[in-house]
Structures are given as C-alpha cells and as structure tokens.
Write a structure and sequence with these properties.
The complex is a heterodimer of chains A (152) and B (226). By secondary structure, chain A is mostly helical. Helix content of chain A is 65%, strand content 0%. In chain A, helix 1 crosses helix 6. The relative contact order of chain A is 0.09. With 226 residues, chain B is mostly helical. The two termini of chain B are 28 Å apart. In chain B, 43% of the residues are buried. The chains are: A mainly alpha (152), B mainly alpha (226). Chains A and B meet through helix 1, helix 2, helix 3, helix 5 and helix 6 of A and helix 2, helix 3, helix 4, helix 5 and helix 6 of B.
C-alpha cells in the first residue's frame, strides 16, 4: 500500500503504538509512585515530605540534562527534522501563566490529581474519576469558549 | 517507615499462574526462572520511590522531543477531546485534531491502560499510602477518616458527588484543572516538567501559580469543605 506523502506532524500508526506504550509506562509510574494519590498532593501542599518534590525535581533534572544534550549535539528528530524547542513567544511569561496557573492549582489542591493522574486513576478502576475527567474536558471547553475575552 | 500490609506474597495473585509462585527450580516463565520473575514482581508491586519515578518521568521529555519533535504535555488532550467531540465552531477547537492530537490521545489511552496495570496487576501490597505522620495528623484533624487506597474513599465515590464536599472536590476541582491548564497552556507535565526542563520563564510563573492556587485550596478551601 503506497501512502500519500504525510504532512509533518501526522503520526503514522506505528508511532501511535509507541505513544500508547509510552503512556502505559507513565500510567504505571503515576500509580506506583503514588503521585496520583490525593494524600500525596496534600502532603506536598503542606510541605511535609520530599516525595512529590523529589519526583518533580528529579524529572526536571533528568529532563533538563536530556534537552541540553539534544541541543548541544544538534540532534534531529527520529524523522530527520530539526527539533523545534519553545520559541521566544512561548517562553515569555504572561497573565495567562499566573492566572491560569492559579486556577489550575486551585483545582489540583481540591481534586488531588492533575490530568495525567486523572487518566491513571480512571484506568486503575476508580470509576468516579470519569466525572473528574468530564469536568476537566468541560473546563477546557469553557476556556475555549471564553478565550477571546480572557487576558493572556 | 512502617507500612501496613495485607497478607504475604505467598497468596495467589490474580492474573498470575501458579508456576510463577513455585519454589526455586520448579518452573520457568518465558524462559526466565520463576524465582527471578517472582522477585521482580515483588519489587515492582511495592510503591516506587521518588528517585526512581522522577528520573523515569524526566526521560519522557527528551524522548518525545527526539521521537516526534514535540513538547510533552498531558493537558492538551483535553483540548483535543473537545475538538473531536464538540467543536461547535469555536476557534480554539477548529483544527485537525487527528493530525495535531493523535499522538497525544494515543498517549493518554496508554495512561489509562498503565493505570490498570499499576493499580490492578502490580497492585501494591501496602493498604495505605505512606504519607508523613504530620500530614496524616493534619488530615485527621480536617475530618478525613478513610486513609486506605490512593484517595479518601468516603469523598471520592459516586454517592459522595451528591454531598457538597464530594461535588466541590471532584466536579469543581476537575473543572478548574481543565480550565486552568488550558488557560495557562500547560499543566504539571507541560509546565512543571517539560517547561522547567527547557528553562522557560513562562513555565516558572505558571508553577508559581500552581502553588498559589494549591495553597489556597489546601489551607483555605478544604477546612471549609470538611
């Protein structure tokens, strides 16, 4: 079967399987490291354990080293294209980051799960998380609706 | 650090056939001696420490940049789900979600599956999450009674949705997570991990926002709700 030339960014089925596998690994990590636990998030916002700071800090450290290596070696993507790192516009802080971030934090403190863990908890059989996911999708939809009127 | 445990590993585990639990030398699983497989599963079933989980999550950032040339983030899946189901002509949802978001939706489908594997197949022998005694004391004082499992079961249930506490935590909390993550253009993965890994000032501001909001919820809103 000869496929027509794909526009950049369109993921073929093979790469979708890789992302599925990557997600699976993440789901296991979110549950096994307990970052999907409401109790751990409460512990974090009360500054009573290193656990969550260790997870996020460890991730940032390894991520930063990895990104620095990619930049230093001028690595291309697996498809041979140059890697586009965040540009100046994306790096510049705006109202959206503080205001949107605070909204997100209010929700994170209540629900005790950010988007990744919502999916992981739902997968682990916590049925009520389907309501949290639907609410989060509704939140994204309402944002899309009011986007032209919100400061960014 | 004490952990409450439910039974020992000698009990049969759902989904694992008897030979896996056989005595040393009694069997093989895909060519690997049963004893080694058993030991590996025992290790994987225990809660994973932060110094294992954090670096593993961190590897995802350079991997996704290399593999797909993309910035890793989970909350954009919420936007793609809207674009796929109810775009209603809203500009924010008018794009080819299969092309832009296919990879992301495949990843979150994987997270669902991984949640099942982590929670059910590699289910923890520990009954409670080993939070610090100080947190447990604070939450007990707040009115949390059920400390078994990943979340307080008395608040995170379908029945509890009809109570003010359950409704605010799950429905309002979920809404704010989705709304805020899209307004901020990223959540914990996109800003706190991907964004800080690429040293973005915007992500630092967003993370400060995450903590401002989280501290208000924890110290102001939760005492009103319990």
């Amino acid at each position: 079967m000869s496929a027509p030339p794909r526009p950049a960014g369109n993921a073929p089925a093979g790469s979708l399987a890789v992302y599925l596998g990557l997600g699976m690994l993440l789901g296991i990590i979110f549950v096994k490291s307990e970052v999907a636990s409401w109790f751990r998030i409460q512990e974090m916002f009360r500054f009573q354990s290193i656990h969550m700071y260790g997870v996020i800090g460890g991730a940032v450290l390894v991520g930063a080293v990895g990104v620095a290596l990619l930049k230093r070696t001028g690595a291309k993507t697996s498809r041979g294209e140059p890697i586009q790192f965040p540009d100046a516009a994306e790096r510049r802080p705006g109202v959206r980051h503080l205001a949107g971030g605070t909204c997100f934090g209010l929700g994170w403190g209540l629900l005790g799960a950010c988007p990744g863990p919502i999916y992981a908890l739902l997968g682990s059989g916590m049925g009520v998380m389907v309501v949290a996911l639907a609410s989060a999708v509704a939140g994204a939809w309402v944002y899309g609706m009011f986007r032209p009127h919100l400061p960014h | 650090m004490t952990r409450e445990r439910t039974g020992s590993f000698t009990t049969t585990h759902p989904g694992i056939r008897a030979p896996l639990w056989a005595a040393p030398g009694e069997g093989f699983c895909f060519g690997v001696p049963a004893t080694i497989v058993r030991l590996m599963i025992e290790i994987l079933r225990e809660p994973w420490p932060w110094y294992v989980a954090g670096p593993l999550i961190g590897l995802v950032v350079p991997f996704v940049y290399w593999f797909g040339g993309r910035k890793w983030g989970v909350s954009q899946s919420l936007q793609h789900l809207c674009a796929a189901t109810l775009p209603r002509g809203i500009e924010y949802f008018r794009y080819d979600w299969r092309k832009e978001g296919g990879w992301n939706l495949a990843m979150v489908a994987g997270i669902l599956l991984g949640g099942f594997v982590g929670g059910r197949v590699l289910s923890s022998p520990a009954e409670v999450v080993a939070i610090s005694p100080a947190t447990r004391a604070d939450l007990t004082q707040l009115g949390v009674t059920d400390f078994t499992g990943m979340v307080p079961g008395d608040v995170f249930s379908f029945a509890a949705l009809l109570t003010p506490t359950g409704f605010v935590l799950i429905v309002v909390g979920g809404f704010l997570v989705g709304f805020g993550a899209r307004w901020a253009h990223g959540c914990t993965s996109g800003h706190a991990i991907s964004g800080l890994s690429t040293l973005q000032p915007s992500s630092l501001i967003a993370v400060i926002g995450f903590f401002l909001g989280g501290l208000v919820s924890t110290h102001v809103l939760l005492p009103l709700l319990f």
